[in-house]
Q: What sequence folds into this?
């Protein structure tokens, strides 16, 4: 404890304390700063009246060239305050470090996984030139508009009204993109040499790719983990997607029809593609046709040019590419999985779009697309398929898929409805479902004319399946009896084929 | 032909270096301002802790000039606002720099 001298400013121990280091232990709690009247000893025998000044006084640097004289107690308080500040800074820095460390850990894990695992495979496709698709690039509703995220500064500036609509759309797009990517990756894991997975989606607009990148990461993970080698052919669907999405009439349905198109070559189930059912990667159909070389963790796919391509008009502005080779491959595979009823030459029909693909007239040996499958000229030459059983399990999937595509186009809706009508009929007619795996469409198409008004297509086909199926069962029973009177062209053709 | 390309390359490299210099300048300026900002924040808080019994000084060169507490607080507050405005002014072009074509 320093002795307070008389009338001289003592400025004891650390006068300016810029460093937060040791709190002066000597600073007592005495707060007095002022002078005190005291009797000061003046020699051994006398006292003098005097004052104590500058007792317990500390000059503190507050920062930025500011000083303050305060009592020691106050100084202690200031020091404590600074210590708090420093502690806070340290904590923040520690959090930042943790972030970095976790990133490092994640990357290390990724590396380990890619080194060690045998069934996780990196698949690459070298693209030499642009894909020769004639589809238009997808056009966004509003160009340069972005999904509403807090990171993007401009989104806040932009509209509040539009963004809500966009948000719903964008979410759907994101979901669909994710599913598409998943499907592609699943398809890639299968080994069919003809199959090609478009590397990324050339037709996607960049903004959607951006938002999908996040979802894509998750999708990739899921795919690599589940590892279902399912066969998939995207060459036909790629331009289709470009065109469908460029319409943007009904965003959900448009893309869903794309999904359903993709299924036509799949033996995969539709759980991944159905908007209504959650993704379930584990339930995929395992049809291992021999995956690529797994010893090297990279598979290189190359796009093979298909010999014959025929454009088929499937509706307003959409077209599909039909390839003879694909059809044959499909048929072969279909036969190998064993549907005894199917005729050898009939293509597998899994989605309504397949039907369009199938109804291709053979004119002079060439495959020529037909404008409308409801009004076809020659039934004999047309390739219709009517076989393979439908299982009850496929019902919901098919219904789900068809429900989503029903709104899109008139012809599409007609088709879907006709298919829906036939489903209960099939269930009654067919005995055993051969394939247990749920599929989008069993491939059985039974044409029937529209007998009753309840079966006629009506514009609001949002949920054709749900309310009408029980009725239709009865109606179809009647309808089937009526077939004796009037036979539609489809039916005639098929009867002919059966015979 | 090759000379043309080389010249182009040279030009681009210079541009790049210039940009880097600008960047480093901006960075250092920004850092300075940030430091001043935090410091002044601390001073403000500490001044709030003080009461009227103690004397406040300001260091101007070699001189400690006596100040009043209220005056000191006001001054520090103004300085704080000025620094904030500086930071905002000098670094606002960040989102503007990204060209629209990027999106």
A:
């Amino acid at each position: 404890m320093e002795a307070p001298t008389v009338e001289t400013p003592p400025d004891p121990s650390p006068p300016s304390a810029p460093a937060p280091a040791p709190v002066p232990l000597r600073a007592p709690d005495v707060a007095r700063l002022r002078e005190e009247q005291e009797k000061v000893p003046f020699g051994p025998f006398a006292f003098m009246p005097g004052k104590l000044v500058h007792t317990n006084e500390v000059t503190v640097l507050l920062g930025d060239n500011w000083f303050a004289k305060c009592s020691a107690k106050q100084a202690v308080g200031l020091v404590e305050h600074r210590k708090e500040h420093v502690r806070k800074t340290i904590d923040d820095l520690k959090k930042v470090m943790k972030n970095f460390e976790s990133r490092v850990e994640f990357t290390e894990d990724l590396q380990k996984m890619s080194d060690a695992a045998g069934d996780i495979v990196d698949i690459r496709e070298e693209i030499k030139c642009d894909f020769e698709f004639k589809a238009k690039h997808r056009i966004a509703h509003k160009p340069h508009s972005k999904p509403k995220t807090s990171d993007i500064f401009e989104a806040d500036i932009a509209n509040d009204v539009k963004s809500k609509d966009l948000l719903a759309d964008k979410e759907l797009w994101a979901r669909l993109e994710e599913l598409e990517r998943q499907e592609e990756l699943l398809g890639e894991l299968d080994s069919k040499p003809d199959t090609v997975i478009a590397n990324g989606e050339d037709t996607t607009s960049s903004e959607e790719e951006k938002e999908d990148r996040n979802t894509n990461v998750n999708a990739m993970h899921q795919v690599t983990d589940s590892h279902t080698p399912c066969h998939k052919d995207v060459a036909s669907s790629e331009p289709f997607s470009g065109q469908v999405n460029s319409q943007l009439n009904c965003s959900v349905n448009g893309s869903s029809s794309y999904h359903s198109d993709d299924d036509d070559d799949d033996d995969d189930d539709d759980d991944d593609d159905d908007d209504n059912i959650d993704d379930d990667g584990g339930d995929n159909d395992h049809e291992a046709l021999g995956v690529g070389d797994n010893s090297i963790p990279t598979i290189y796919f190359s796009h093979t040019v298909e010999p014959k391509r025929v454009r088929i008009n499937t509706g307003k502005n959409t077209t599909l590419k039909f390839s003879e080779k694909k059809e044959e491959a499909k048929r072969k595979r279909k036969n190998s999985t064993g549907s005894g009823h199917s005729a050898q030459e009939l293509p597998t029909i899994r989605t309504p779009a397949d039907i369009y693909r199938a109804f291709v007239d053979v004119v002079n040996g060439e495959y020529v697309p037909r404008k409308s499958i409801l009004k076809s000229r020659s039934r004999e030459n047309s390739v219709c398929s009517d076989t393979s059983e439908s299982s009850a399990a496929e019902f919901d999937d098919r219904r789900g898929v068809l429900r989503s595509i029903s709104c899109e186009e008139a012809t599409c809706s007609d088709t879907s409805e006709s298919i829906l009508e036939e489903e209960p009929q099939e269930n009654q007619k067919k005995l055993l479902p051969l394939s247990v795996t749920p599929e989008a469409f069993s491939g059985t198409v039974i044409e029937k004319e529209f007998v009753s008004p309840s079966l006629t297509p009506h514009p609001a086909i949002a949920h054709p399946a749900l309310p009408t199926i029980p009725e239709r069962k009865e109606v179809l029973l009647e309808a089937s009896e009526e077939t004796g009177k009037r036979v539609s062209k489809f039916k005639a053709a098929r009867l002919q084929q059966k015979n | 032909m090759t000379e043309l390309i080389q010249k182009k390359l040279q030009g681009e490299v210079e541009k790049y270096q210039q940009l880097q210099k600008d960047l480093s300048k901006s960075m250092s300026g920004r850092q300075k301002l940030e430091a001043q900002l935090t410091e002044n924040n601390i001073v403000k808080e500490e001044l709030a802790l003080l009461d009227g019994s103690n004397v406040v000084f300001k260091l101007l060169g070699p001189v400690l000039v006596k100040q009043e507490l209220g005056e000191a607080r006001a001054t520090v507050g103004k300085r704080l606002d000025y620094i904030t405005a500086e930071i905002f002014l000098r670094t606002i072009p960040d989102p503007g720099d990204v060209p629209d074509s990027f999106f």
In short: The two ends of chain B are 34 Å apart (CA to CA).
